[in-house]
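Sequence in, structure out.
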Amino acid sequence: MNIILNGLQSNTKRGDIVLPSAVDLTGKENYLLKITNASGKENFALPTATDDYACFVCMSGGAAAADTAGEAPGHEENFRGVLKGTCSPGDTLSLADPGTAADAGKLRKTPTTTGTFRVFAIAEEAGVDGQYILARRVSERTVTNA
């Protein structure tokens, strides 16, 4: 934001933000995070549903209540996220099922099975399980498969 043109944008900034961790995020670099409310204070947490707004890439995870840095990639840049399963270039990517705790915050090829999924990015390369997949953020949309 250009604060010279609009002084009301005075406490905005570009790039990463640092918030306390709602849970232990140690070792969760490149996982996707969401902002949650803890008694009126913002913090970072892993997604808990496949359609959460988890648009922040964890840059440096911290223990519970410790500082964690996250950055929301723009549409003009690519990023790397942790992949669950496999994908091909051009596949849309959404959140992996957080019902399996180890998968919360990972990306996966958007399923065609029944459910609601938030499409977050497009794969820019082929990927295998556990890879830091190169992806490009797209305008988010929710897909519901019957």
